[in-house]
Write a structure and sequence with these properties.
The structure holds 3 protein chains of 3 kinds. By secondary structure, chain A is α+β, with helices and mostly antiparallel strands. Chain A has 20 helices and 17 strands. Chain B is an all-alpha fold. In chain B, α1 packs across α8, α8 crosses α9 and α10 packs antiparallel against α11. By secondary structure, chain C is mostly helical. Chain C starts with a helix and ends in a 12-residue tail after the last helix. The chains are: A alpha+beta, B mainly alpha, C mainly alpha. Chains in contact: A-B, A-C, B-C. Chains A and C meet through α1, α5, α7, α8 and α16 of A and α3, α5, α7, α8 and α9 of C.
Chain lengths: 566, 305, 322
């Protein structure tokens, strides 16, 4: 009788649970037959767009290239929604207005829709002549209307925040002149426009007005395009999921970039290095974002290391130095902190000395243009030497007796993974010369809160990227400019130099101004320097060397020379 | 002696017996001999290193050494006897960090338990004693708080008030109070009907006096049992939140954080994640086993929970 | 009357849901201004104002709450602030992925907790019982993220038997991807389930005995069957109610460790980025499902055992250790 109860109860429980599981399995089987909403309609795509005849002219395509890194982004196929970091794949399926060579060494008219351009006086605009005979992947010709429309798209409410803010900030206004000419006007001088709107920094891509819901600019139109995009390039997007992956397939022999090399390219976001490495080892991935600690390991498992120089820039800043009660108001204290930091040792410990260059001035950021002027490199390239004795002397001169230096904070908010280690390595260096250092990691919300009040960043050394990549266009390096409560607005020389930079009428004027600015920032130690580190990739033996280390663009990766062949 | 007086004496005697009975039996030697030795030893070690960790750690847990990065434990090839369990990516001694990392977990656990148990027991007592509407509402509330996935709630909390020890404590309390409330309430329900309570009420004692003087001592042993059982839970919660980045932020070493930062190095430095996690598992297991033993020991009836 | 009981419980559930919504609303807004958080550092005041207008945070809180409630009711979750895509698009696929993992783990739990729990109860005090108890204790003591990492280190990294994270293609070919994450997710509930089964079996043994002694004249099979029905169903329902909560929220820890494209993972990134719409959608969804599950189980409970209607509530019968 006892057994009856037990067995009976046991059976009953089992039946109930199994029933539940069966229901669930049935549900899932039904779900499988329904397409997931985030992937594109593959069938529709391949039916009308791919297998363009021109592909036949290309040499045989390799099957697939799989890449994984920490790409925490939307993977959107809509070019105006793209973040700056997505250049490496967006330029494979979209055409930029202002071209750059595939290696991203220079602006190159041969690789863009714009065949030629001429600046208006004072660089208050330019007139662009379009290349003839270019088409979108569906055969439609690229027209002047499309170019004007694309600029409107990039300035619209639904475009990515940075490019939208920049274009609106310089009050851009585009007009069709004739079939081959477009006139773009700015509200103020922007001599760096063509440069910064190219794949070297943050490109404007050309989108078909007709295909984009016949020229409608609305959230629905963006959604529609995103779900069923039109490509203009050797590849096209066939599948994607926000924050997870994007898949491209070979589409045509492109007039600008040439033949695709792979039939399929898969880009995945895998944030854990361990997982990436494990999948790399089993051959599931060909290229992965690497880690410097694993360089020895990489060669042991048959991988090559490839680096893209200056892909990441961590800058150190003294903000709000105009405050009298900010210890960094005193230049001697700033210099003391700068001399106390052993830049070379940090480069060796945090980045293992691989692909990292310490620089002197913290800002202006070393955009392509600035570094082209040797005066800028002269002013900014060399960080202060490591001299703890001098640091102590300076602190003493500033009124801090030996060993009782000021209390400061090292503040960062997870822009880069190295920041934590960085802070922990810097702390003992600063404490050695007398500073009392607290490490203060904050999150984005706290960063915004401190920014709102005027004194949130006193007594701090802050880690930061070099700011918006298009700050030169946004004018006056708006983050550190006089209106933004961060930069040294009390320093008349700096303010004047900033004004000169933002009002420059030509590229030469501009780079002269930024060099002057750099020298000021360096000499007056408005920041203890920055580190330009290269991105590091582990590449399988199957993949040939495509010269990533020569690339000068700002994105962490550049695939163009690997996956296309002109 | 009048009838009333003898009754009163009987009540007091019963009360005394009921108040002292359990504690007395705890201390009987024959029972002490059956102590769970292993868990108690581990717990003692844990508490000791939590309180005196700073002095016990062989190396400075914060000192970085760029030449001694990622060294394996001392008994392995390439290991260094100075660093018993190896070093992390900044060259810090893992063993010392584990020792020093015991304290934050311990503090958070203690704080959470104190607040959670006091609050929960109090509410549970009121709920059980008053019964009726109040009881129903309170219990519904408790169920609601407990049903919602805790990590989700804790992350949301961390987003609002920022990560840190206080976040973990509040998150833990959100569940703890309900568990204590429920337990105490059911205990109170049964004790409430006992003779000595009824007699106390007849004798004119106020509700408060009854609750504190009569009921509370009898539910204390359940509270102690639950406390031990929940300590492990809070330690794991803290570790999990630290792992996810919502717990105590760096540079304070906590076990959960150490496991998280060792993640990328599983292939070349597995000891970074394995040992801190092992520490968590062993400590929590010991507390759970102790709690189990306590429960069986003090009242076999409670085995149901 | 049964109907009054049912109606009462339903009203309670709705009230709790609305309270939840208030909490969610306040919490997400107290967490920081998403307009500032999601714009680059050099955004001007005009940019921030424009962003606020786009997101809708420029209106008064009452209005916002009204809109929020209306949206929740119509399952209109809006667009992710970070990704600009409709939340339903983002959440849909993720939710399915999480559910698949949870089902795999449920399967695993049934397979293991069942025999273990029964064994432990029938061989009480002897070796199988001790082993089961130890396993259960370990399951509750070891932190999930650690076990997951250790499993990954052993089976994926060093032995290379199983993939190291990810979901593969998500269908039957990729069953290998499910193994380690499923084990990691099941640990806690496995331990709880084993204990639950064990104690419920033991209780049944005792009560069984008593009932048999008392039940003279009443057909044996009837008593046993009714007894089985009640006591067998209740722990099961309790367990399912707990499981549903985890199932719908995904297991954040497992998904983070194994890079599983589920809802837990999405929630974590949404929290970091203060992406309201996603946070609200996920929390709201979870709240609704949890409340509904609890409501259903409560009602069944009340129906199955009238005593319970007046006395204890659902969680009384579940394990306190959770």
């Amino acid at each position: 009788m006892l057994k009856h109860g037990l067995v009976g109860k046991g059976i009953f429980m089992l039946i109930t649970l199994l029933a539940f599981v069966t229901l669930a399995v049935l549900f899932l089987m039904v779900e499988e037959s329904v397409q997931s909403p985030s992937s594109l309609a593959l069938a529709a795509q391949s039916a009308d767009k791919s297998v363009d005849q021109s592909l036949a002219e290309c040499p045989e395509l390799k099957p697939v290239l799989r890449i994984a890194g920490h790409f925490n982004e939307e993977f959107t196929p809509h070019p105006a929604e793209n973040r700056f970091a997505s250049i490496h794949y967006t330029r494979l399926h979209q055409m930029p207005l202002f071209g750059a060579d595939p290696r991203e060494e220079n602006v190159d008219k041969n690789y863009g829709v714009a065949e030629a351009w001429e600046f208006l006086p004072g660089a208050k605009g330019l007139v662009v002549t379009l290349r003839e005979g270019l088409t979108f992947n569906n055969g439609d010709p690229i027209t002047a209307e499309d170019v004007v429309f694309s600029i409107q798209l990039a300035s619209s409410d639904f475009a990515e925040d940075q490019i939208k803010a920049t274009l609106r900030g310089i009050k851009v206004n585009a007009k069709v002149v004739d079939k081959r000419k477009v006139r773009i006007e700015f509200g103020k001088g922007a001599p760096t426009f063509a440069h910064e709107m190219s794949p070297l920094v943050f490109p404007i891509y050309v989108t078909s007005k007709k295909y984009h819901s016949d020229g409608v600019i609305s959230q629905e139109a963006f959604d529609r395009f995103r779900k069923d995009p039109l490509a203009a390039g050797p590849y096209q997007v066939v599948d994607r999921q926000a924050q997870r992956f994007i898949t491209l397939e070979a589409a045509r022999k492109d007039p600008l970039l040439g033949c695709p090399v792979y039939k399929r390219i898969e880009l995945r976001n895998i944030s854990e290095f361990g997982t990436r490495l494990a999948q790399f080892r089993t051959g599931q991935l060909d290229i992965i974002e690497g880690s410097r600690d694993f360089l020895d390991r990489a060669t042991a498992i048959g991988a090559r290391a490839a680096t893209k120089p200056a892909a990441h820039m961590i800058g150190l800043y003294f903000f709000q130095t105009w405050h009298k009660n900010n210890v960094f108001h005193d230049q001697r204290v700033r210099e003391a902190a700068t001399y106390a930091i052993d830049h070379k040792l940090i480069a060796k410990s945090i980045w293992r000395g691989v692909g990292v260059t310490p620089w002197g001035c913290t800002w202006p950021p070393s955009t392509e243009l600035s570094t082209m002027n040797p005066k800028y490199t002269e002013a900014c390239a060399t960080p202060y030497p490591y001299d703890p004795n001098k640091a102590r002397e300076l602190l003493a001169a500033a009124g801090f007796p030996s060993g009782r230096g000021p209390s400061i904070k090292l503040v960062y908010w997870n822009n880069y993974p190295e920041e934590g280690d960085f802070a922990e390595a810097m702390q003992p260096m600063l404490e050695k010369v007398g500073f009392k250092v607290t490490i203060d990691p904050i999150d984005r919300a706290e960063y915004a809160r401190r920014r709102k009040n005027d004194v949130g960043y006193v007594d701090s050394i802050m880690f930061f990227g070099p700011g918006g990549r298009i700050t030169s266009l946004a004018g006056s390096y708006s983050v550190w400019g006089p209106t933004q409560h961060w930069g040294p607005k009390h320093d008349k020389d700096v303010v004047d130099a900033l004004a000169a930079a933002s009002q420059a009428g030509s590229v030469e004027e501009y780079t002269e101004a930024t060099a002057r600015l750099g020298k000021l920032v360096h000499d007056r130690a408005y920041g203890p320097g920055f580190f330009a580190s290269s991105s590091l990739w582990f590449v399988s033996k199957k993949v040939p060397d495509w010269g990533l280390d020569k690339s000068r663009g700002r994105a962490p990766l550049n695939l163009a020379t690997l996956v296309t062949k002109r | 002696m009048s009838l009333v007086e003898s009754e009163r004496l009987r009540v007091e005697q019963t009360t005394v017996v009921s108040r002292r009975g359990k504690l007395g039996s705890w201390l009987r030697w024959s029972n002490l001999r059956r102590l769970p030795v292993l868990p108690l030893t581990v717990i003692t070690i844990f508490v000791t290193i939590a309180l005196f960790g700073e002095w016990l750690a062989p190396n400075d847990p914060y000192e970085t050494s760029l030449t001694a990065r990622l060294l394996p434990p001392a008994w392995m090839e390439r290991g260094d006897s100075r660093y018993f369990l190896g070093t992390d990516r900044l060259g810090r001694d893992v063993f010392s960090r584990i020792i020093v990392g015991a304290l934050p977990s311990f503090k958070v656990a203690l704080a959470a338990l104190v607040f959670g148990s006091v609050m929960g027991s109090f509410i549970g007592m009121i709920s059980g004693y008053l019964g009726g509407r109040v009881d129903a509402i309170i219990m519904r509330f408790a169920d609601g708080t407990m049903a919602f996935p805790l990590i989700l709630a804790a992350l949301l909390l961390a987003a609002v008030i920022g990560p840190g020890g206080h976040t973990v404590v509040i998150a833990a309390c959100m569940v703890l109070w309900a568990r204590f409330a429920r337990l105490i309430r059911s205990e109170v329900l049964s004790v409430k009907e006992r003779d000595f309570v009824k007699l106390a009420r007849v004798a004119g004692a106020s509700n408060w006096r009854i609750m504190i003087a009569h009921i509370l001592p009898n539910v204390l042993n359940s509270v102690v049992v639950l406390l031990t059982l929940q300590l492990g839970f809070v330690i794991i919660l803290e570790a999990t939140l630290s792992f996810l980045g919502a717990g105590i932020p760096p540079p304070t070493p906590t076990w959960g954080q150490m496991v998280a930062s060792g993640r990328d190095y599983l292939e070349i430095a597995w000891w970074l994640s394995v040992f801190p996690g092992l520490a968590i598992a062993v400590v929590v297991l010991s507390f759970n086993l102790l709690g189990d033993w306590l429960r069986d020991y003090t009242d076999p009836r409670l085995r149901q929970i | 009357m049964a109907i009054r009981y049912v109606a009462g419980r339903i009203v309670q559930a709705i009230v709790t849901l609305i309270l939840f919504m208030v909490v969610i609303f306040v919490a997400t807004r107290a967490a920081g201004d998403p307009a500032v958080l999601n714009l680059p550092a050099d955004a001007t005041a005009a940019d921030i104002a424009a962003a606020r207008q786009r997101i809708g945070t420029d209106r008064s809180y009452i209005v916002q709450f009204g809109i929020f409630l209306g949206d929740m009711a119509t399952f209109e979750f809006g667009r992710s602030i970070v990704y600009g895509e409709p939340v339903t698009d983002l959440v849909g696929g993720r939710f399915i992925a999480s559910l698949k993992l949870q089902l795999a783990s449920l399967f695993l739990i049934l397979l293991t907790a069942f025999p273990l729990g029964v064994l432990a109860a029938t061989r009480r005090g002897k070796l199988p019982d001790r082993i089961a108890q130890l396993l259960a204790a370990f399951g509750q003591a070891a932190p999930g993220f650690w076990v997951g990492l250790v499993l990954m280190a052993i089976f994926a990294v060093h032995l290379r038997l199983l993939p190291a994270g990810g979901m593969g293609t998500g269908d039957l070919d990729s069953w290998r991807y499910f193994i380690l994450p499923a084990i990691t997710t099941s640990l806690g509930l496995f331990a709880a389930m084993t204990r639950l089964l064990r104690s419920s079996m033991l209780e049944s043994l005792d009560a069984e005995f008593v009932k048999l002694v008392r039940a003279k004249g009443v057909p044996e099979w009837k008593v046993v069957w009714i007894h089985v029905f009640r006591n067998g169903l209740l722990p099961v329902m309790t367990f399912m109610a707990i499981w549903v909560g985890t199932a719908v929220s995904g297991s954040v820890v497992t998904e983070v460790v194994f890079d599983w494209p589920g809802i837990g993972n999405l929630f974590l990134s949404a929290i970091i980025a203060r992406d309201f719409p996603i946070i609200q959608a996920v929390v709201g969804l979870v709240a609704i499902v949890v409340l509904a599950a609890n409501l259903v189980v409560d009602l069944l409970y009340g129906v199955v055992d009238p005593r319970i209607r007046f006395a204890t509530s659902l969680m009384e019968r579940s394990t306190a250790k959770g």
